[in-house]
Amino acid sequence: MSESEERISRTDTAVRGSDTAVDAAEYDTVAMAVVGAVAAAEGVSEIALPPLYDAGIDPDALNELFEGSRTHVEGFFSFVYFGYVVTVTSDGGVTVETHRTA
User: What does pTM read for this prediction?
Assistant: First the structure.
């Protein structure tokens, strides 16, 4: 089993219908938690997904926003990545929902 597959199986992941939630504290960074949550929702390895940059998300900025001591925010940030709406909350939650277009 690869390290990425182990992380998916080790992570406290909750799958509710088309939603997946992970605790960002289980990962080294918030950006890694995002990729891990989407990978879990897709049922694939984290390395099978495109970089966050492809969705217009700077992983370093995301990490600084939710982990940095100077710019820590209270609230949430949502964006679309790999067909999912990803929401990162200031309490360390990462939720992934299937993106539906009208």
Answer: 0.77
